[in-house]
Automatic annotation (TrEMBL):
Residues 65-361 form the CYRIA/CYRIB Rac1 binding domain. One of its GO terms (biological process) is regulation of actin filament polymerization. Belongs to the CYRI family. The keyword Translocase does not apply. It is a lipid-anchor. PANTHER family: GH09096P. Interacts with RAC1 (GTP-bound form preferentially). GO terms for cellular component: membrane. InterPro entries: CYRI, CYRIA/CYRIB_Rac1-bd. This is CYFIP-related Rac1 interactor B isoform X1. The keyword Nucleus does not apply. Keywords: Lipoprotein, Membrane.
Length: 365
C-alpha cells in the first residue's frame, strides 16, 4: 500500500487516480491568482460503473501552467484557442453596448423629420454590425465546442481518463461555459439589443418597399437578419446555441455511448460543487472571480447535461447532485447568482417534468 496525500495531509491507502479539473483563465482582464491551488479531495459516486460510495480523488489545479496542451491535444487546442482569444473582446463590447434608444425614440416621434430618420439609421447600422459580430462568434464557439466534445468523449477512454489526459482541453471547455454564461447574463439585462435590431429590420423593410438604397443591407442581408433575429429572441442565446450543439453532437455520433458525454458533464459539475461547498477548499480562493468562474461552469454543464441526457439532470437517477448544486448557488450573495438561477429555471429542459422532485422545484421557485 502506498501513502496518498490529501488536501489536509497524508492518509493511508492505495493512491487513487487523479483527475485534473479545468484551470481558470479569467476572461475579464483581472490577474490570475498568484498561487497555484493544487490539492485533492474525495467525491463519491461520480463515475458510472464504480461501486456505490467508492472514493474517487480529483486533483484540482488552478494555474495556467498546469494546463498546457500535450502533443496529442495541440491541434484541437490551437483551433479552440483562436476562438477564445476573441472572447474577452466580445464581452467588453457587449458590456459597453448602450444602444440607440434616444435616436430611435426621436425618429418614431417625428416620422416626417428626415434628419432624425437619418440620425437614427446612422446610429443603428454600426450597432447592428456589432450584433452581427456577436452572432458570428456564437457560430465559431459552437464549432469549438463540438471539437472539444469529440476529443473529450472519444473511445476507448472514460470521461475521468479524458479529464486526466486532456487537461488543457478540459480547461478550454470550462472557459467556453464561463464565457457563455457571462455573455447571456449581460444580454438579458440589455433590452437595447432587441430594440435596436427590431428597428433596423422595420426600417430596412420600409426602405425596400420604397426602393430606397439601404447602407446597412450589405452588412446584414435578409437571410442573416432572420437567423440573428431568432438568436437574439432567446433569453440566453449563447447557452441555447451550445445546448443545441451538444444535442446535435450526441445525435450525430450514435456509435459513441451517450454516457461518454453525460459522464464528462456530470463529473465537471461535481468537481465544481465540491470545491464550492467545502469550506476548506473554498477558503483557498483569494479572488471572488474564481468563485464566479466555478459557479458558471457548474451551471453550464448542468444545462448541457439536462439537454442531452434522456431523463435530464433533475431526475433521481441523475448523476448530478442537483440539491447540492442549487444549495451552493443559494448560499452565494443573491445579486451575484440570480442570473444563474434563472438559467436553471428557464433554459433547462426537464425541470418541470413529473420525475423532478417537489423539493427541487421548490428550491428553484
Amino acid at each position: 500500500m502506498r501513502r496518498g496525500r490529501g488536501a489536509g495531509g497524508g492518509g493511508v491507502g492505495e493512491r487513487p487516480p487523479f483527475v485534473r479539473a479545468p484551470a481558470v483563465r479569467l476572461l475579464e482582464g483581472e490577474e490570475t491568482e498568484a498561487w497555484s491551488l493544487s490539492y485533492s479531495f474525495k467525491v463519491t459516486e461520480l463515475i458510472e460503473g464504480q461501486e456505490q460510495n467508492h472514493q474517487h480523488w480529483l486533483k484540482l489545479s488552478f494555474s495556467r501552467r498546469d494546463a498546457q496542451p500535450t502533443e496529442s491535444e495541440k491541434e484541437i487546442y490551437n483551433q479552440v484557442n483562436v476562438v477564445l482569444k476573441d472572447a474577452e473582446g466580445i464581452l467588453e463590447d457587449l458590456q459597453s453596448y448602450r444602444g440607440a434608444g434616444h435616436e430611435i425614440r426621436e425618429a418614431i416621434q417625428h416620422p416626417a423629420d428626415e434628419k432624425l430618420q437619418e440620425k437614427a439609421w446612422g446610429a443603428v447600422v454600426p450597432l447592428v454590425g456589432k450584433l452581427k459580430t456577436f452572432y458570428e462568434f456564437s457560430q465559431r464557439l459552437e464549432a469549438a465546442l463540438r471539437g472539444l466534445l469529440g476529443a473529450l468523449t472519444s473511445t476507448p477512454y472514460s470521461p475521468t481518463q479524458h479529464l486526466e489526459r486532456e487537461q488543457a482541453l478540459a480547461k478550454q471547455f470550462a472557459e467556453i461555459l464561463h464565457f457563455t454564461l457571462r455573455f447571456d447574463e449581460l444580454k438579458m439585462t440589455n433590452p437595447a439589443i432587441q430594440n435596436d435590431f427590431s428597428y433596423y429590420r422595420r426600417t430596412l423593410s420600409r426602405m425596400r418597399i420604397n426602393n430606397v438604397p439601404a447602407e446597412g443591407e450589405n452588412e446584414v442581408n435578409n437571410e442573416l437578419a432572420n437567423r440573428m433575429s431568432l438568436f437574439y429572441a432567446e433569453a440566453t442565446p449563447m447557452l441555447k446555441t451550445l445546448s443545441d450543439a451538444t444535442t446535435k453532437f450526441v445525435s450525430e455520433n450514435k456509435n459513441l455511448p451517450i454516457e461518454n458525454t453525460t459522464d464528462c458533464l456530470s463529473t465537471m459539475a461535481s468537481v465544481c460543487r465540491v470545491m464550492l461547498e467545502t469550506p476548506e477548499y473554498r477558503s483557498r480562493f483569494t479572488n471572488e472571480e474564481t468563485v464566479s468562474f466555478c459557479l458558471r461552469v457548474m451551471v453550464g454543464v448542468i444545462i448541457l447535461y439536462d439537454h442531452v441526457h434522456p431523463v435530464g439532470a433533475f431526475a433521481k437517477t441523475s448523476k448530478i447532485d442537483m440539491k447540492g448544486c442549487i444549495k451552493v448557488l443559494k448560499d452565494q450573495p443573491p445579486n451575484s447568482v440570480e442570473g444563474l438561477l434563472n438559467a436553471l429555471r428557464y433554459t433547462t429542459k426537464h425541470l418541470n417534468d413529473e420525475t423532478t422532485s417537489k423539493q427541487i422545484k421548490s428550491m428553484l421557485q
